[in-house]
């Protein structure tokens, strides 16, 4: 787990207009922050800057107090969960979940999976206690068990339901023992029933793993049930940060 600190973060794309403007936010170790705001307000841009898929124009990103603006994505040890799953269609559920571990292993030769990444040592890559420790196989099976995917391990994504695919995507994030999860509207493609089910599963996982999360959603129920705090972004600027209760129950 890790804290994430944003200090006056600005993102300007080529048109020079700030897509994210002067955003400052302290996300505590283990905290679940919901990010809401109208389409185009900069939510995805902010997540992508945190995870390292997009350069930060100015300002500073810190993970556990260390500046990470220049760190490669793999050295940030954050896991992103997208709405479109991003699973490999030709791989089984097992192989999809194991993929980040195998990738890290083949790069580093680290027999524990090497998912700790991080060139800055220190507290990076601590075990989450959930699917932590053990061999690749142990970790994949433990994550699959948590997500009720054990009986589907040999299936391909095409043969899974939307909810199951979403769980595979989360399994992949869990086995990496990431320091934080970044969710970009992970449930928005699911029907209402599945969304409700997945919402409780994420809430349970969060309780069990206590992992720092930033979660983009348009869904007020998700914000109410999952969030410790809700950050409201508008035209690239942070308008308000409040508890779900304060935000949604105000007159
Ligand atoms: P969202 O669901 O976050 O609203 P969008 O549909 O706005 O996503 O964007 C989808 C993808 O298109 C993103 O990867 C984003 O970077 C890219 N994108 C969005 N707006 C622009 C733009 N004006 N120019 C180039 N790429 C864009
Ligand atoms: P959200 O996720 O809240 O829908 P985005 O972060 O996708 O918002 O977009 C914020 C702003 O940045 C929008 O005006 C969008 O058009 C612009 N934008 C996003 N991605 C790109 C990109 N790759 N190139 C240029 N402009 C972009």
TrEMBL record:
<feature type="region of interest" description="Disordered">
    <location>
        <begin position="108"/>
        <end position="136"/>
    </location>
</feature>
<feature type="compositionally biased region" description="Gly residues">
    <location>
        <begin position="111"/>
        <end position="135"/>
    </location>
</feature>
<keyword id="KW-1003">Cell membrane</keyword>
<keyword id="KW-0067">ATP-binding</keyword>
<keyword id="KW-0547">Nucleotide-binding</keyword>
<keyword id="KW-0813">Transport</keyword>
<dbReference type="GO" id="GO:0005524">
    <property type="term" value="F:ATP binding"/>
</dbReference>
<feature type="domain" description="ABC transporter">
    <location>
        <begin position="4"/>
        <end position="251"/>
    </location>
</feature>
<protein>
    <submittedName>
        <fullName>Trehalose import ATP-binding protein SugC</fullName>
    </submittedName>
</protein>
<keyword id="KW-1278">Translocase</keyword>
<keyword id="KW-0472">Membrane</keyword>
């Amino acid at each position: 787990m890790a804290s994430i600190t944003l200090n006056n973060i600005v993102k300007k794309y080529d048109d020079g207009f700030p897509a994210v403007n002067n955003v400052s936010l302290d996300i505590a170790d283990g905290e679940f922050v919901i990010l809401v705001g109208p389409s185009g307000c900069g939510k995805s841009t902010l997540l992508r800057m945190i995870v390292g898929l997009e350069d930060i124009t100015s300002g500073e990103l810190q993970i556990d107090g260390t500046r990470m603006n220049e760190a490669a994505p793999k050295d940030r040890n954050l896991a992103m969960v997208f709405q479109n799953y991003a699973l490999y269609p030709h791989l089984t559920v097992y192989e999809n979940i194991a993929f980040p571990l195998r990738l890290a292993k083949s790069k580093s030769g680290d027999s524990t999976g090497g998912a700790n990444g991080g060139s800055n040592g220190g507290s990076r890559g601590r075990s989450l206690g959930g699917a932590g420790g053990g061999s690749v196989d142990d970790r994949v099976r433990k994550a699959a068990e948590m997500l009720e995917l054990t009986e589907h391990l040999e299936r391909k994504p095409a043969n899974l339901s939307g909810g199951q695919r979403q769980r595979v995507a989360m399994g992949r994030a869990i086995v990496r023992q990431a320091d934080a999860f970044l969710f970009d509207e992970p449930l928005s493609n699911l029907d209402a029933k599945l969304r409700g089910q997945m919402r409780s599963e994420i809430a349970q996982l969060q309780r069990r793993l206590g992992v720092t999360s930033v979660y983009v959603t348009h869904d007020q129920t998700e914000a109410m049930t999952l969030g410790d705090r809700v950050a409201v972004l508008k035209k690239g600027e942070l308008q308000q940060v409040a508890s779900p209760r304060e935000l949604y129950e105000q007159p």
